[in-house]
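seq:
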Amino acid sequence: LMPTEQASSQFAPPTGSALRISTSNESGVNIYKVGHFGMFFLLALVAFRDKKKDATLSPLLGYLLLFAFATETVQLFSEGREMRFKDFLIDCAGIAGGIAAARLLKLFRAL
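struct:
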């Protein structure tokens, strides 16, 4: 190979293999899972921040849970993706964290 051909072939992905991008950092934390947790945390925080104290959680919570389930279900139709119950639980944890944060913010505003 010529020097320029050799240099360019060093950076090309091997033929016939999929280019894989690492989704974890050095500590093993999966950035996609953190992103899903964070997204549902923020959705719940925004949704519940102005909710009245005596208002019921059920309709809004139901919509958030349905959206979390839908984001996992749609992966059944995406090549290379799969639906995982563990990911749904991570989304639910984000929702619970967002609701808790919204309630804490209300508590601190009341003081």
